[in-house]
Amino acid sequence: MTAKDRLTEVHQLMENLKQDYPSEINSFLGFMGKAEGNPALSAAQKELINVALSVAAQCEWCIALHTKSAIEAGARRDEIMSAGFMAVIMHGGPALMYLVPLSKALDEFLPENTHG
After folding, report:
1. Of the candidates 24, 68, 74, 92, which lies 20 to 30 Å from 110 by C-alpha distance?
2. pLDDT in tens, 63-84
3. What CA dihedral angle connects 9, 15, 18 and 20, to 10 degrees?
4. How many CA atoms lie within 13 A of 71 on its CB side?
5. Looking at residue 116, what is its pLDDT?
6. Are 79 and 69 in contact (CB under 8 A)?
7. Residue 113 has pLDDT above 70, yes or no
8. What is the pTM of this model?
9. Which of the four pLDDT bands, split at 50, 70 and 90, describes residue 112?
10. 104 burial type by CB count under 10 A (0-12 exposed, 13-18 middle, 19+ buried)
11. Gap between the Cα atoms of 62 and 57, Å rounded
């Protein structure tokens, strides 16, 4: 399954939840919007943190979502991989294995394979 496939699944899940559980998902999305709205960190910094947490949490859907969002916020490949390695430092060997989907997502969303 590709990172783009995972994003499609996330978007479908959100649509289903908005239809079937609007109160619950709208409460979550409202909280998320407030938490992400604080200007102390840039959008790219926040997404790099989210990438690291996604790797540590071993969530391939989160990795795909936040890798793409980090790229869209201006983060470079090396910054995103560095965030992944920070997760490995804090979470150990299991997080290291989740650099596989992180690398695949980067290759998919940044196919030029630049490392700068």
Report:
1. 92
2. 999 999 999 999 999 999 999 9
3. -80
4. 19
5. 56
6. no
7. no
8. 0.88
9. confident
10. middle
11. 9
